[in-house]
Design goal:
By secondary structure, the chain is of the alpha/beta class. The protein folds into 2 domains: 6-120 and 247-312, FAD/NAD(P)-binding domain (3-Layer(bba) Sandwich); 123-243, FAD/NAD(P)-binding domain, CATH 3.50.50.60. Helices cover 24% and strands 26% of the residues. The strands form 5 sheets. Strands 1, 2, 5, 6, 7, 8 and 19 form a 7-stranded mixed sheet that branches. A 5-stranded parallel sheet has the order 10-17-11-12-13. The longest helix has 19 residues, at 294-312. The chain is elongated and about 65 Å long. The two termini are 24 Å apart.
C-alpha cells in the first residue's frame, strides 16, 4: 500500500458501505473500501444470505440478495472505488491519519473513516438450523414474512424481547397463526408489547420452550421443542420460523475506541453519522438497533459519505 494516507477509507460492503462508496467516488474522494472476508462479515453483508428481496425500491418483481449486492458493488467500482477483500484486524483511532491493519498484514492510513461493518443476527447453534437456513428459517420477518411460501400458514417467532413481539405482530398480516416461542415464563418485551402479544387473536405464546431441532428435508416442516421446566419434548408444525434473539454489531476490531451503547451499537450524534471521534463516521446496521433494513442502511451510507466529504473539505 502507498505510504500516503487515503482521503477516505470505508470498512464494510453491505448496502451502507457500498452506497457510501458510490457517493464518495462521485465526489472524487477516490475511496478505498475494505469489504470483509470472514470474521468481519462476508462481502456484501447479510443480503448475501437473503433469497429474494421484495421491499427494496425499484424492483417490483423482487431481486435476489446476492444479485442486488453485486449490482451495488459494480456501481461503486464503476465510479472508481477500489476494493480489498480482507478483514480489518485492528484500528488505531487515537490520532490522524487513522491507521488500520488487515488480517493479511496490510497497513492503511486514512484522513477520514466510515465504519459500515453491519450487525450479525444472533442464530441458534444447531446443525439443523444451518441446513434449513433460507429454507423456512430466517432472522428477519420484515424481510421475508410476506413471501408467498409463508402466506396463510402457521409460523413461529423465537424470542421474547420487543423485536420478537414486533415480528410476531408483523407476521399476523400474512400467517394463519403465529406461535411466539420463549424460553421463560415472562416476555422480556416492554409492557405495551407484552400486552399486544397477549391480546392478539392470531398469536399464541408458548412459554418455557426452546427449539431443540428444526425438522424438514428440503424445507422447514416443524420444530422440535423442549420444555425448559419439565424437559418434555414436543413437535410444532410450522412453515416458517423467524429467530429474533438479538443482533451483534461487528465492532470488535475497534477495541472500544468509539462510544457504544449497552448493546454495542456505535453511538452517532443524532441526525448525523458522526461518531465520538471527529473524522470517523458510522453507517448502516452497526449504528442502527431499530430498523436494520437494506434501504435505511443505504440511506445512512449516503449521509456518511456526504458528511465525510464536507468534513474533509
Amino acid at each position: 500500500m502507498s505510504s500516503n494516507p487515503e482521503r477516505l477509507l470505508i470498512i464494510g460492503s453491505g448496502p451502507a458501505g457500498l452506497t457510501a462508496a458510490v457517493y464518495a467516488a462521485r465526489a472524487n474522494l477516490n475511496p478505498l473500501l475494505i469489504e470483509g472476508f470472514q470474521s468481519g462479515g462476508i462481502p456484501g453483508g447479510q443480503l448475501m444470505i437473503t433469497g429474494v428481496v421484495e421491499n427494496f425500491p425499484g424492483f417490483p418483481a423482487g431481486i435476489g440478495g446476492p444479485e442486488l449486492m453485486q449490482a451495488m458493488r459494480e456501481q461503486a467500482e464503476k465510479f472508481g472505488t477500489r476494493l480489498i477483500t480482507d478483514d480489518v484486524a485492528e484500528a488505531d483511532l487515537s490520532r490522524r491519519p487513522f491507521a488500520v491493519s488487515t488480517a493479511n498484514g496490510d497497513k492503511i492510513t486514512a484522513e477520514a473513516l466510515i465504519v459500515a461493518t453491519g450487525a450479525a443476527a444472533s442464530r441458534l447453534p444447531l446443525d439443523s438450523e444451518q441446513k434449513l437456513w433460507g429454507r423456512g428459517v430466517s432472522a428477519c420477518a420484515v424481510c421475508d414474512g410476506a413471501l408467498p411460501v409463508f402466506r396463510n400458514k402457521d409460523l413461529a417467532v423465537i424470542g421474547g424481547g420487543d423485536t420478537a413481539v414486533e415480528e410476531a405482530v408483523h407476521l399476523t398480516q400474512f400467517a394463519s397463526k403465529v406461535y411466539l416461542i420463549h424460553r421463560r415464563n415472562e416476555l422480556r418485551a416492554g409492557p405495551i408489547m407484552r400486552e399486544r402479544a397477549a391480546s392478539h387473536l392470531k398469536i399464541e405464546i408458548l412459554w418455557n420452550k426452546v427449539v431443540d431441532e428444526f425438522l424438514g428435508e428440503q424445507r422447514l416442516s416443524a420444530l422440535k421443542l423442549r420444555d425448559t421446566v419439565t424437559g418434555a419434548l414436543s413437535e410444532l408444525t410450522v412453515a416458517g420460523a423467524f429467530e429474533a434473539i438479538g443482533h451483534k454489531p461487528n465492532v470488535g476490531f475497534l477495541n472500544n475506541q468509539l462510544k457504544l451503547d449497552p448493546q454495542d451499537y456505535i453511538i452517532v450524534t443524532p441526525g448525523t453519522s458522526q461518531t465520538s471521534i471527529e473524522g470517523v463516521f458510522a453507517a448502516g446496521d452497526v449504528c442502527d438497533p431499530h430498523y436494520r433494513q437494506a434501504i435505511t442502511a443505504a440511506a445512512s451510507g449516503c449521509k456518511a459519505a456526504l458528511e465525510a466529504q464536507r468534513w474533509l473539505q
